[in-house]
Amino acid sequence: MALEADRMQNLAITSEIFDREIRVVMEERRLSLEDKPEALLDEALRATAYNASPARWPVIGWQDDLQQMTWLDARGCQVERWFGAIPARPLPARKPQNEPLQRGLKRVTIKAPAEVPRVVLAFKVMPLEANSAAKQEAYALNVLAAVLDGYPNARLEKHLVREQRLADWVDASYSMVARGPQLFTLSAIPAQGRSLSELEAALRNELRRIAQNGVSAQELQRVKTQFRYDPPNRSGLAAMTAHMLSTGTRAAKGCLGLTEAQIEDRLAGIGGVIADTVDGDSAALRLRTLSAASKRDAALVVFAGILQRPALPEKKLAREKQRVITALNVSENQPQALAEKVFKAAVFGAHPYGASPDPKSIAALTQADLMSFYRAHYTAQQAVLSIVGDCDRPQAERIAEQLMRALPESVPGAVLPPVAPLSGSSEIKLLHSASQAHILIGAPAIARGDPDYFPAFIPAAQPGSFQINLQTRKDQASEALLVVFMGCRWII
């Protein structure tokens, strides 16, 4: 407390310190806003949509404001607003900053270096306010966003991405807990050969259908179930195989084959979520489900089918390849992604760790490639199974048997070649129109089998060696969850 009191009362804000820190803030703005077309679009959208609300101002500030700011401004703000010798008193009621009535359509177009265009529709709405007559409207808008894009195979994904092939990516967003007017947004990236005007019309049509016909009881129940868990975002060949596992299962003796939509429907109805992650050495499939026996068992049946009998349908593969290619094209305009790609190739050369997927390699993938990769790597001998949640040891053993018993037979594993040492230092410069530079420095380090591998992590955790951002997340219902982690290693 003494340290905090001293910091608050005697904080030294000097010109030298301020100049150093304001440069950091300006670089952060360049990194998070000015080098990202989608961020520039969002900034312009809010500045256009709002007239009076403070929501029209970027939190980090406009670049011109930052350039004009001095250390006296910072000290004056500290004294005047927070830590001056002001006696305690009740704060006056906050005056609302209401938006004037909008009398027509506002439209803004941002032109920036980008491989992929994007369209965003925004509607001014109110947030959740305790004493507001529109309180129920905020809940309804939150549900509406989920109906449109809150679970796999929701309306936007189903109609615009899968059925009509108008979009490669869609999103519906609404911030319910906030101060002042908010925006309900629909965003999308068009599929190859489709226009922004087509996509805008399709997004408006989805809203029109709900306005005219409402939502079904089944959709509403799915949303209520999905609100318990936010499904994480999903992420050539290894990643594509992992993601394609959940797009359908083959029929077998005593087991029905399921389509992608049927898998998603069954999981949505019981609060189940399946996700995949892939890195250079392994893949992981995760199942999260309520631990009630009926829901857990139903989810495990679906999960076992995905692991043991993936269909890997060609139509779904074509769709997923296009989505990955779109994402790769987007990354081609992101300086950090480009720098990391070139850096990895420079450090690891022809080693597998130096490879990065590109549109050509993704387009060449076939169903046979994926099935061959699955049979070679998704075996019980190469798997690590973790179970966390409300189940005892006998139940866990039954789950392990259920998931492992029908996996492919193991084949001799590939041997990871050693990483060749660098012959000398080198410097690579990439020309880019970005306003911020990205500098990467490194070399191959020790291998996983080295006895110093884990001790080497300790210095990075010591104060003063690196700045480490830590985020902890407490699961609000951990006692009511069953999490099954299935990891398959490429190299053994």
From TrEMBL:
Residues 228-354 form the Peptidase M16 N-terminal domain. SUPFAM superfamilies: LuxS/MPP-like metallohydrolase (SSF63411). GO terms for molecular function: metal ion binding. It holds the Pfam family Peptidase_M16. InterPro entries: Metalloenz_LuxS/M16 (IPR011249), MPP/UQCRC_Complex (IPR050361), Pept_M16_N (IPR011765), Peptidase_M16_C (IPR007863). Residues 78-226, 365-456 form the Peptidase M16 C-terminal domain. This is Insulinase family protein. The lineage of its organism: Eukaryota, Fungi, Fungi incertae sedis, Mucoromycota, Mortierellomycotina.
